[in-house]
Amino acid sequence: MQIQHLLFSQGFGTRRICAGLVEQGLVEVEGQWVTDPAHTVVAQGLRFRVQGVPWLYQERAYLMLNKPAGYECSHRPGAWPSVYTLLAPPLRQRGEGAVPGVQAVGRLDQDTTGLLLLSDDGRFIHRMTSPRHHVPKVYELELRDPPTPQQVSRLLAGVAIERASEPVRAAACSITGERAMQLTLTEGKYHQVKRMLAAVGNPVERLHRSRIGALELPGDLAPGQWRWLQADDLQALG
Ligand code: URA
Question: Looking at the predicted structure, is the pLDDT value of residue 94 above 80?
Fold first, then answer.
């Protein structure tokens, strides 16, 4: 692949900007400066630097972000900044035509924290979000009142929430502290956790997603930080 096309595919700007970056001597490929935009490289596994910033070629982007509170999962946010502003600029600029840009894999509310996946692979996004695939999402809840065993039973049996044609149920639910609960869902209706807890009369005061499938939010990924998913992370997602 020509280096100018590779830079474009990775989100380094328009085709003209990418050619210009190379011509201006701002691109280093495996330790060598490259100044011909038509210089060809083997894309797979390629390490390069643009204006000194290291990058690894990735045909498709698969990322995890530790979402902080106060960010919206939207490209056109309203009152709060977008989670996409937390990503490296090339990740925000990837995608053209049939390949969409990087998108959140399902949404977390502005005030929800924790594990958020992002990708530009439409099939992956569909597999992770479709209720048919039953990918479990685990949430840690801080509640207004101490949870009761009756509330747990109701959440497991199914509760009626507005605009849902059938009762929605937790795949798993347990009391984890004085005002804390862990709840697992295999679907993702709008504000589902908060609406389910409101339906049993114990509103959520804090919500954090700790796990998707077998993939846990790593303890060393600080709020606001992102990283590429590795092969074992993708395997953990099933
Ligand atoms: N359920 C909610 O109510 N909010 C979230 O952000 C995620 C699940």
Answer: yes
Task: Based on the residue annotation, tell me whether 109 is a catalytic residue of this protein.
Answer: yes
Q: How confident is the model at residue 162 (pLDDT cuts 50, 70, 90)?
A: confident
Q: How far does residue 169's CA lie from ligand 1's centre (Å)? A: 14
Pocket probe for ligand 1: among 74, 129, 139, the residue whose CB has the most ligand atoms within 8 Å is 139
Nearest CA to ligand 1 atom 2: 191
> What does pTM read for this prediction?
0.93
Map out the domains of the chain with their CATH numbers. Answer: 3-56 (3.10.290.10), 62-130+226-236 (3.30.70.580), 136-212 (3.30.70.1560)
Other beta carbons within 10 angstroms of residue 177's beta carbon come to: 13
CA 148–ligand 1 middle distance (angstroms): 21
Q: Which residues of 60-82 are buried (b: 16+ CB within 10 A; e: fewer)?
A: ebbbbbbbbbebbbeeeeeeeeb
Q: Which residues pair with 40 in a beta bridge?
A: 2
Average pLDDT, the chain: 95
